[in-house]
Amino acid sequence: MKTNYIKLFSFLLPVAVATSSCNKLLEVTPKYIYTTDQIYANDTMADSVVVGMYGRFAANQNDLSLNTGLSSDELIPGVNSFNPGYSFMYSYNLNPFSAQTNDFWGNLYSIIGVSNAIIEGVGQSKGMTQAGKDEAIGQAKFMRALNYYFLVNLYGDVPLVLTTNYPEERLKPRATAAAVYTQIIQDLENASQLLGSDYPGERVKANKWAALALLSRVYLFTKDWTKAEQASSQVIAQSQLFQLGQFDRADGAEPMDIFTKNNPEQILQLWNSMGASIGVGIKGEFASFGVTEDPTGLLQAFEENDKRKENFVRFEETVNGYQINKYRSDGEAGSANNEYTSVLRLGEQYLNRAEARLELGLPTAVDDINILRRRAGLSDLSNGLTKSQVSAAIVQERRVELCFEWGDRWFTLKRLGLVDNVMKKAKPTTWKTFAQLYPLPTVELQNNRQLTQNPGYNN
């Protein structure tokens, strides 16, 4: 006897429910209620579910990049911010009831749930082509991997939920971070084989190169330097698709085009109707975020004449402080609809490869760093640097190149074992070593007695 579990795709259809084929929930099927067979009846229907999955992920993306910036040494709460949660993030005054960290858990697992439903539903479809099945499953596995990447970096060990079998999955204990990374890599390797190499339209859904780009980063976390080097090299080699954006454009328009929609530096972006990426709420008198300016802060980290400083941060006279300027579109009425949220871009691939090559003992590590430094208007690093000096240079370049992007600074400090030393200097009165991981939501601990809380937090 086959049982289908209820799946609600409110972002796609008014109601979409897969009912039991043995025990009918309703004698008459109401309007807008669909079975699994109907939802995945053909390639077009399945693609609508995939688009909905991306839409749900995009709706929740801003807070992750910005709140992790508060946890690290990138951002401070805006002087006129009315959200006390940002101050709690900045000062590590978190608890299992904190809205920000609870939202991360719920939002990320909700996307994983949709991913699992797509994988199962497409696998059972009788109306889809094999090419359509490969595409949908590849997209679902990519998104499942991406969301687990964030979960394991925010919370450490987390439950590994891989099916829609709710009675079993809801009571799973925390899997080790190593097991989670193994699953992430498996999903991304599968996705890289299932997804196509081109962009049929805009760069708003993953393809083979997006899967490899994320793999190159994940391999750094697992210290698989050879595979990290190979994955990033494959992406960089696709020069017909990817080239670095510019800080100085020949047409004299915007001084920076790196984050414009469908820019060739972009490997994956998130579509949004406003044309605003992270820009909402980060500029002007009532901006919720400010850039750190103390001696150890981000503002002081930029070298003299670094074009990234003038393009990535800006001075706001109304608050007498610096704010994020990396993302130009802010979604306000009349603003240009020319920017999508960047998820993966070519600039990071050079840094991933530089680190992998350094660990493999290859002298070309410095060459990759210098490619980004030249774009920023800086001089090349010397080839005579020691390994520790090159490693420090890579951390520095990641800091200024990838600031405000998906927690890269926060995750890098933790991955390299630098977070304690750096944050003790940046926030000597508030830093707590256990704050490297966020607290699990109390409601999850109450609903699943197999879960345990991260050290340092009381339920």
List keywords for this structure.
18 helices, disordered N terminus, SusD-like_N, two-stranded antiparallel ribbon, mainly alpha, 2 domains, Serine Threonine Protein Phosphatase 5, Tetratricopeptide repeat, two-stranded antiparallel sheet
- The CATH architecture of the largest domain can be given as Alpha Horseshoe
Average pLDDT reading: 88
- Strand % is 5-15%
The CATH class name of the largest domain reads Mainly Alpha
End-to-end Cα distance, whole Å, is 41 Å
Structure in words:
It is a single chain. The chain has helices spanning 36-39, 43-59, 61-71, 84-91, 99-124, 130-155, 166-169, 177-194, 208-221, 225-236, 298-301, 307-312, 346-359, 365-375, 387-401, 408-415, 419-426, 442-447; strands at 75-77, 266-270, 289-291, 313-316, 321-324, 341-345. The protein has 2 domains: 1-36, no CATH class; 40-430, Serine Threonine Protein Phosphatase 5, Tetratricopeptide repeat. The chain has 18 helices and 6 strands. The strands form 3 sheets. Strands 1-3 form a two-stranded antiparallel sheet. Strands 2-6 form a two-stranded antiparallel sheet. The chain has a two-stranded antiparallel ribbon with strand order 4-5.
Task: Please write out the topology.
Elements: H1 36-39, H2 43-59, H3 61-71, E1 75-77, H4 84-91, H5 99-124, H6 130-155, H7 166-169, H8 177-194, H9 208-221, H10 225-236, E2 266-270, E3 289-291, H11 298-301, H12 307-312, E4 313-316, E5 321-324, E6 341-345, H13 346-359, H14 365-375, H15 387-401, H16 408-415, H17 419-426, H18 442-447
Antiparallel strand pairs: 1-3, 2-6, 4-5
Helix pairs in contact: 2-5, 2-6, 3-4, 5-6, 6-8, 8-9, 9-10, 9-13, 10-13, 13-14, 13-15, 14-15
